Every structure is written in structure tokens, then in C-alpha cells.
Amino acid sequence: MKALVYTGPGELDYREVADPVAEAGEALLQVEACCICGSDMHAFHGKDARRQPPLILGHEAVGTVIGGAQAGQRVVINPLVSCGRCAACREGRGNLCGRRQMMSMNRPGSFAERVTAPEANMLEVPASLTSVEAALTEPAATAWHGVTVAARALHRPLAEARALVIGGGAIGLLAALTLRAFGCAGVRVAETNALRRDTVAAEGFAAFDPRDDDPGEAVAELVMDAVGTAATRAADSRWVRPGGVILHIGLGDNEGGLDIRKATLQEVTFIGTYTYTMPDFQSALAALAERRLGRLGWVERRPLAAGLGAFRDLDGGRVAAAKIALEPGR
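and the corresponding C-alpha cells:
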């Protein structure tokens, strides 16, 4: 089969590889669409030690089951594979499983014509969704999980809170859409890329360039950081109100930025959040299917064979779309 293989920093090779073989409890799928994630970009930059070349990246995938009882069924894959037995799994927090695996990290990813996945990690795609739209389930579940965690920590209902999202990429935009679906009005989004600001604004959000339009001190009860750099953590600290919540999703870097003194003196809650649970995944898929997360017209489609160009365009900030989906069949 053909696959897009990460071979080193800045390099992806579209080439022939061996077909995957499904093991017990797994299914073989014909991949229909797989979106590029920020973590794929981190690997592309050589900045993710967990993703070592040669490796097939891609974990936001939809495919059709080949063979077995589910043959012909179109499914979305939950790429987070947990053990199901540890304390975290028994608590319903499989995203914190110490033995978890992730497709495109320590399992082959889905930038390929075919992929295998555990049957327990597959959900049937509702007829109302195209495969490209359904491929947004994984990032939508990440945003859904983050908003759910933040809602538990806030001292007022989300509908009464002011929220500011940092980053207008897929996670940031989906976080804003999820906040709106939860009843949070007037969400603002900080984004430095003008093309992405236009995409965010087209979804009905106030988008601004924080380099030119600083909203000031203590403006939001909830700040969701979908970038995760020292600069954005410094902005988180400035923009969060006393007693508010900083919800950190992005993994841009690991160096500084957070104002610990302010967090202590003003009782600011800082929460790191990672991926999702299976209920989050199911809820996100249902929300997408019911159009509670908007029109979903902000995904750009490209052939899998053109994957290297897509990564380079994303890296160069030349893409207005918040997400690019790669399709092996195109």
C-alpha cells in the first residue's frame, strides 16, 4: 500500500510500504480521510521525541472496515488505546493510562491507504457526516474534554463566563465552537495569522491579533490556551481574571511564561488537559453530527500523495483553513 512516512525533520516520503495485519480484537480499515494535527507538525519539526522516524503519522482518521462482522461499515477511530485495567482506566480516565498507546506515536498512523485499529476504539459514523467532517472527531473530542474540565473548575456557569481562546487553529476554533455549544456567549479568539483570523471570524467569533490589539489585564474568567508557548502562557496570566481558570491544551514548548505569583495571590486555577475520554469522543461525534459545532466548512481537502506540500504550507502559514484533511483515494 501507499503511505506518507515521516523520515526525519522536515521530510515526508510518499512510498510503498507493507500492508498492516490486524491482530486479535482489531480490524483492518481502508482509510478515507485523515487530518493533520499539531502533534504531526511537532514531529515534522523534529520536536517530539515520542515520534521517531521512520513512522507513519496521522491519527484523526475515518475509514471503512475491510472484512469481519463490521465489513463495509464507515467508522471513526479513537486513536488513544488504553489498557482498560489500571486505576486510571477503572476511573474512566483512560487518557491518563500509564500504558496508553497512540496511533502515529507508538502505533502506526493513518496517513496511509490502510490501517489497523482495535474494534473497541471504533465508532460508526452517522450518515449526516462526510468522512472528512467525521475526521474532526478526534480534535473536537480534545476541545470537548477541555471545556468540560474547565466548566467543573469555574466558579460560575459557562453561560455567565467570559472566555478567551488563544490560537485559531483547529483546536482553538473547536474550543470556541464547543464553548458556544455549551452556552458561553461572546467568546474571543487571539490569533496572529491573518488568514486564520478570517476563518475564525467567518464562524462568528471576535478574532484579534494580540500583537496589535491587546485586550488588557484580567478580561476573562476562562482562558483556553491552544498554543502552549512561553509567550501565550504569559498572555494567559495577564488575561485571566482573579479566581479564574487557565485551561492549557497546547504543547508548543515547555519553558516558562506562567505568572505563579499572580496565580497564588489571585487564586487562579491552572489546568493541563490531555486528549479525551471515550465519553468525550462519543459526545464530540454526536455534536458534529447534530451540527452543534457549526457548518464545518473550514477543512481543506488534499490528496495523501500531496501530503508533504500540505505540511510545508501549514508550516509557512500559507493556509487559511484551520485543518487539512489528506485523502488516500483522491
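(Above: one complete record from the training split.) The domain at 2-136+296-327 is CATH 3.90.180.10 (Quinone Oxidoreductase; Chain A, domain 1).
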